[in-house]
């Protein structure tokens, strides 16, 4: 019936929960494991084709990474043109996983136009669209437009921040329709970023970011083209937040036509800003950067990084479609997915190469499993098993290998494991995703990891591969 509903031939495997046959790893590691993940795919599709060859299509707005993925209507109903402009760019980018349009404040009134939460960072976004009216009095026209487009937007940002600061305890976002979203980090731990987007000036009115309001609080003031460019180029939450933090620390006075020119300086300077008192940029810096061989080489090298994005999207999309089995036990996959999403673009390039390379090696019988210890926020374990291996055995092996990887690489507390079948033409695939988080490995866990390594040979005779990667290849 399920195959008939989607109108395609599919591979559906018989899956079940079972205590791992070899050992109950969870007893020792307290792993949050999402055991069963079914991906419904056409019969002639395999994992490598799905993740490597297809283009990345970001998921839409959500009120939780897994609980309500793609919950917001794609047409962004109920938004005005200015809000729809910003929300649409957010939907197309990484911010779709973290952003809420028109969230409610304590009184039930609109808090701000968009609120982005990725612990510990909170980004308050206000957007105003005011057409610039040319009456022949440039100074008067400019002052009037700034007052309505920029000052009012900044005012809303500070109002939203005051509302968030009212509660000393942690609170959850209330979405536009009244449902509960992600938890807002506590006041003492959160990092606030303030963004005002002013549309309609057509760059007749030049403005720049800076300190405003009480307490020397920094506000990022952007126009439409700059906002769209920044989200397109810094298309992971980590890259975007790093840029905001770098700007907030910038002491120099900046004179520029559009912020994309400042972004070009940031990217070409090793993702930092020059230590100068004055940065004066003529228009065209960004365009010149786009035409450079270095930029084109980077974009070409980054293509493989979207393998990682596609893998993330697979889990998100199938959760929304109801294809992730396992009831409410999603803590492990939730934590694993958050870690995967937080990886920046350059790190994803290495992860994409490692994962796609592993699929090739696994298909050729050269590798059953791989550890990717660095770079990354976690140690990653990839496992590919024969299609006829019982699912409970594959789960048990993934658990054991993750514990051994945690023991072999003690510098990182979290291990994220991804398991699938050995790729074969015309064969569908399933995925297991788990997160093993052990802040301090106990002697008992270390002894168990060593025992399993010796008993089963997991990661016992490893071949190490080190590769150098430049963000901007020669």
Structure characteristics:
474 residues, alpha/beta, five-stranded mixed beta sheet, elongated, disordered N terminus
Give an overview of the whole structure.
- It is a single chain.
- This protein is an alpha/beta fold and 474 residues long.
- The chain is built from 15 helices and 15 strands.
- It has helices spanning 2-6, 25-29, 47-53, 81-91, 138-165, 224-233, 237-248, 259-268, 285-290, 293-302, 306-320, 331-341, 345-363, 391-408, 443-456, and strands spanning 32-34, 99-101, 114-118, 121-129, 171-174, 180-184, 191-199, 210-212, 217-223, 253-255, 278-280, 369-372, 379-385, 414-421, 432-437.
- The strands form four sheets. The protein has a six-stranded mixed sheet with strand order 2-3-4-7-9-8. Strands 1-15-14-13-12 form a five-stranded mixed sheet, sandwiched between helices. It has a two-stranded antiparallel sheet with strand order 5-6.
- Strand 12 and strand 13 form a beta hairpin.
- The longest helix is centred in the N-terminal third of the chain and has 28 residues, at 138-165.
- It is elongated.
Question: Percent of residues in helical segments?
Answer: 25-40%
Shape call: elongated
Low-confidence stretches: 1-45, 53-76
Structural class: alpha/beta
Order of helices and strands: HHEHHEEEHEEEEEHHEHEHHHHHEEHEEH
> Based on DSSP secondary structure assignment, what is the total number of beta strands?
15
Query: Within the largest sheet, what's the order of strands?
Result: 2-3-4-7-9-8
Strand content: 15-25%
Average pLDDT taken over every residue: 78
DSSP helical segment count: 15
